[in-house]
Amino acid sequence: MVKKVIKIVLVLALIALVAIQFIRPEKNNGGYENVALFETETKPSVKVAAILKENCYDCHSDQTQYPWYAEVAPFSLWLDDHIEHGKKHFNVSAWNDYSIKKKEHKLEELIEMVEDDEMPLKSYTIIHGDLSEDDKKLLLQWAGVARLQYKHQLEVSSNK
Is 16 in contact with 73 (CB distance < 8 Å)? Predict the structure, then answer.
């Protein structure tokens, strides 16, 4: 009796696993145009731009480079959720839509998240590797300088 129940559960699980393969989240492939606008405005060095591309843009832009397992549910659904969540909080492809105040705040959050080792997510670094201390330092320096640029713009506009 127990074997029969286990067999039924396994068959149902297999059917469910096959069925969810037909659920395909929309791909996040909007192009690099808006990312280029972000980089033009925030002026990362070549090295920092590479760090951003390798560690941030997959979840925080409209251009995701999908790994092979993104074609297999439930991983595809999990990745889609991560990307959607990441873009909701910080989307470099929407940078031009942000106010100066919001840009300054987003960079402040980026700095805090990286300093507190909350970004990149552990679930990302398990597979892709973590930021080296040197990369983290470069990223934080760049973000700090870019943030100061926006703080200065806010101060100038508030003094008018």
Answer: no
Contact 98, 147 (CB under 8 A): no
In this prediction, residues 86-115 reach a mean pLDDT of 95
Q: Can you tell me the distance from the alpha carbon of 37 to that of 145, in angstroms, rounded to the nearest whole number?
A: 17
Number of Cβ within 10 Å of residue 82's Cβ equals 16
Whole-angstrom distance, CA of residue 83 vs CA of residue 74: 14
- 127 vs 140, residue with greater confidence: 140
pLDDT at 157: 82
pTM: 0.82
Half-sphere exposure at residue 51, Cβ-oriented, CA atoms within 13 angstroms = 22
pLDDT higher than threshold 70 for residue 160: no
Q: Write the single-letter amino acid at 151.
A: K
Please give the Cα distance from 25 to 11 (Å, whole number). 25
